[in-house]
Amino acid sequence: VQVVESGGGSVQAGDSVSLSCVASGSSFGVEAMGWYRQAPGEQRELVAIISSINNNTNYADSVKGRFTISRGDVKNTVHLQMNGLKAEDTAVYYCYAKGLIKERPRDYRAFEVWGQGTRVTVSA
């Protein structure tokens, strides 16, 4: 299973950016997809995550009310709409997915995968 991100770029403070991610592979099911970010010199942190089972979402306090995560119409896709961007949102954003891979009948293996990352730069 792999995930590939798209979107990102350089914007001004107050602008909006949308990120998208698609998971692909064979014989797998996704339990949750989300976004993490890592700013220079900082640890990677959760931005937002959404359950593929019940659509429950969880956001970092710093992005609540500005960012929205949603599942795409295409299976195993997720979007992150980022509004009201601030300079402190500058980071590399990584797509994340976890779920189960069916290796044999009634034999499943858990997986977690990360994308290569896409950079978002917000100028004050």
Please explain how this structure is put together:
The protein has 124 residues and is an all-beta fold. Helix content is 0%, strand content 63%. It has no helices and eleven strands. The protein has strands at 2-7, 9-12, 17-24, 28-38, 45-51, 57-59, 67-71, 77-82, 91-104, 107-114, 118-123. Strands 2, 4, 5, 6, 9, 10 and 11 form a seven-stranded mixed sheet that branches. Strands 1-3-8-7 form a four-stranded antiparallel sheet, with no helix packed on it. The chain is elongated and about 55 Å long.
Can you summarize this structure?
The protein is an all-beta fold and 124 residues long. It contains no helices and eleven strands.
How many individual β-strands? Answer: 11
Mean pLDDT: 96
Q: SSE order in H/E notation?
A: EEEEEEEEEEE
Q: Quote the distance from N terminus to C terminus.
A: 37 Å
Give unreliable regions as ranges.
Answer: none
Overall, the morphology is elongated
Q: What is the helix tally?
A: 0
How is the biggest beta sheet arranged?
7 strands, mixed
How large, in whole angstroms, is the Cα Rg?
15 Å
Give the topology:
Elements: E1 2-7, E2 9-12, E3 17-24, E4 28-38, E5 45-51, E6 57-59, E7 67-71, E8 77-82, E9 91-104, E10 107-114, E11 118-123
Parallel strand pairs: 2-11
Antiparallel strand pairs: 1-3, 3-8, 4-5, 4-9, 5-6, 7-8, 9-10, 9-11
Keywords for this entry:
four-stranded antiparallel beta sheet, 63% strand, mainly beta, 11 strands, seven-stranded mixed beta sheet, single chain, 124 residues
